[in-house]
Amino acid sequence: MNCKNTAEFALELDAKDELKDYRNEFHIPLQKNGKEHIYMCGNSLGLQPKRTKEFLNQELEDWATFGVEGHFHAKNPWMPYHEFLTESYAKIVGAKPAEVVAMNTLTVNLHLMMVSFYRPTEKRHKIIIEGDAFPSDIYAVESQIKHHSLSPETSLIKLRPRDGESAIRTEDILAIIEREGDEIALIMLGGVNYYTGQVFDFEKITKLAQDKGIKVGFDLAHAAGNIKLELHNWGVDFAVWCSYKYLNSGPGSVAAAFVHEKHHTTNLNRFAGWWGHNKEDRFKMPDDFNPIQSAEGWQLSNPPILSLAAIRASLSIFDEVGMDKLVAKSKELTNYLLYLLNTIYTDRIEIITPEERGCQLSIRVKNGNKNLFDAITEKGVVADWREPDVIRVAPIPLYNSFHDVFNFYSILKEEL
Ligand SMILES: Cc1ncc(COP(=O)(O)O)c(C=O)c1O
After folding, report:
1. Does ligand 1 have an atom closer than 6 angstroms to the CB of 130?
2. Which of 70, 189, 203, 238 can bridge 113 by disulfide, Cβ–Cβ 3.0-4.6 Å?
3. Which among 228, 202, 206, 227 has a CA at the least distance from the CA of 215?
4. Cβ(245) to ligand 1 under 6 A?
5. pLDDT tens, 198-220?
6. Ligand 1 atom, smallest distance to 133 CA
7. Is this structure's pTM higher than 0.85?
8. What does the pLDDT look like over 103-139, one tens digit per residue?
9. 137 lines ligand 1 (CB under 6 A)
10. Which CATH number is 86-320's, of 1.20.1530.20, 3.40.640.10, 3.90.1150.10, 3.40.630.30?
C-alpha cells in the first residue's frame, strides 16, 4: 500500500473498508465536548456492542418470568448456556468445540490449568515465563511453585530480551529449551506479550518443548480475538483468556480455557466442582466425581448467565465477520499507524513492538516522561500508560477507523 499522511487518504481507506459499518455496532465513548474519543484502548477494555443490552435484557426478562425454571424454560436455557459459546470460541482460537469452555476468570483458570499441567518432580520442576509477563501471571506461577514447596529462585526461568533489544528472540527461547529441557516442567507464555505486543512463535516453541517432555500453555488475554490462532493444530496443551479486551464482553466478564483433546480422557490431576461432573447424573448428586470428557470437565461452578449473555452478544459479531477478515483489516490499520509514526522525525519516542505482532503498538517514551501521555489524553485520545515508559495503542478492526489512526498520529505529532 502506498500510504500518505493526510486525513483525505485515511478517509479514502475508510471508504474502501469492508468492515466500516461495524463501528456503528459499538458505543464509542464521548468527550466532554460531545466529540467521540479516539479510543485506542480495546486491548485493555473493549467497547460495548450495542446489541449487548438486548442479549442481557433477554435473560433479565426470562429470570423475571420463569425464576428458577429459567434453567430449562428460558428462551436460551441457562443449564446449557455456556455451550452456546463454544462453537464461536472454537473458531476464534482454532480449536475443536470440545476443547474450549467459558468459565471463571483468567487468573483462576491459569491456576486450574497449572493444577493439571504443572506436576513438578525432583528433576523436572522449572517453569519458563516472560520476565515482563503480566504481573498476575508471575504471581500465579510463583505461587504454584511455592505450593509445591519449591522456590522461584531455582524453579522459575524468566525470559529476557538481549541487551539493547525489546523483543525476546525465538532462537533464545529454543536454546533454553534445548539446554535445560530435562529440568523444565512447563512453559507458560503470553501468546501476545501485554507490554511489547510481541507475538510468540506458538508452533516452534510448542513442538520443541513437547519433544523434550515439557507441557506448554499460553495466556491469550492479548491474543484471543486479535490474532489468528491454531491451538489444536499446534498441539498446545492448554490456554486461558479473558473476554473483556479484544472480545468486548464487559469489565471483569467471564474468561475461558482451552484444553487439548489429547488430555480429555487422561487421568490428570485437577481441582473439581459439580459443574465439571458428567451431565447425565450431575443432579443425582453422586459422591464420586466423574469428569465430563472435554474441556468442560475443568468447570467448577454454574456460570454467571448475565456475563455469558454479554459474551454471546459479542461473539455473534465475531461469527458474522470471521477472524480472517478481522485480521486482514487489523494488519492494514496497524501498518498504517506504523507508517504514520515513522514519518515523525523525533528521538523522543521509539516503537518497541516487533514485526511479529497483533494490532497493538507499544511506544517507548524517552526518559519515561508521562507528560506526553497526559497531553494526548487531554486532547481526546484513550490509550494506556504502562510503567515505566510505554504508551500502548491498539487500533481495533471492529470499531476503529483509519481516520481514528490518523487523528491519533496528528495529536501525538503535535504534542511531540
Ligand atoms: C496478560 C494478562 N494476564 C492476566 C490478566 C489478569 O486477568 P484477570 O484479572 O481477568 O484474572 C491480565 C489483565 O489485564 C492480562 O492482561
Report:
1. no
2. 238
3. 206
4. no
5. 999 999 999 999 999 999 999 99
6. 1
7. yes
8. 999 999 999 999 999 999 999 999 999 999 999 999 9
9. yes
10. 3.40.640.10
